[in-house]
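seq:
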Amino acid sequence: MHFDLSEEQLMIQQAARDFANTELKPGVIERDEHQKFPHEQIKKLGELGFLGMMVDPKYNGAGMDTISYVLAMEELSKIDASASVVVSVNNSLVCYGLEKYGTEFQKEKYLKPLAAGEKIGAFCLSEPEAGSDATSQHSTAVDMGDHYLLNGTKNWITNGGNASTYLVIAQTNPALRHKGINALIVEKGMEGFTVGPKENKLGIRGSDTHSLMFTDVKVPKENRIGEEGFGFTFAMKTLDGGRIGIASQALGIASGAYELALQYSKERKAFGKPISGHQAIQFKLADMATEIEAARMLCLKAAWLKDQGLPYAQASSMAKLFASQVAMKTSIEAVQIHGGYGFVKEFHVERLMRDAKITQIYEGTSEIQRMIIAREILK
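struct:
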């Protein structure tokens, strides 16, 4: 068992850290305040290869491993979780799904520009009445021979307004329930496809979350991913990998909050000495450091299993469940260590606390992760 990172992995980690500090940090408070999507920063991340990290170079990807992806996600998320969620969705939901299950035609047409960062993708599963219960799809894709007629509404869609390529899960044969669901590639601009208003969110406010409406959208048969009825399996398999991305995002939020609290504790004086000299603060920092290290190990283990081609559903659910808890707990404690300063925006930790909450909700709530883990251990 090796705990050493390769030279390439360390280089990617450093590149992500440098980018986060030089490109993401300067405007992060303003983007959060005004809900501004980080257009310029995402464009640069694409040019550096961060939007198609694990895609084969023949499809314009960077050909990196999942461990490198975890390292990059942590570093970006320490500074700006709104930018890192774009990286996560594009990499582990959209690009991964297309590369693993798409046809050669689909890869050439859609995967290449997504992996190169020329376009952004969105993954459309959630609906007003189908969140955790993803089998209850009300969106329909009626088979019309050479195309599907898509109708329905999707909500909470990350990159909803700025994406060009949308992977949409819809029901074709209700009698077959989850085995009658298809995954379709929908392009922005297709007739009958409209993007709803942007959500006003608690956290990750720089990211782009919308409802999407489909009214008699004609989707060519060649845009179906996998066989007829493969959609639900496609969504679940893709989310297994997506959870590694979100776990790493949560890890980054936690480690970012911890690093700020650690630094502040050495500078702030109370009762004649730095507050890091008080056991009350030392114990908080010790707990934070320990839990973050444990979360990091879970993320890297899930990534390693995926890279080895071994089953990783349980590991990715464990990583997401635990890392999201650690993000919430650590960010709350980081605000506490900062005291009054932690309650104002310029010290960053209040934003990290708000950003942390979503990691317990999206790509499968903590309750769903526990169901997956229980199912795996009781096999």
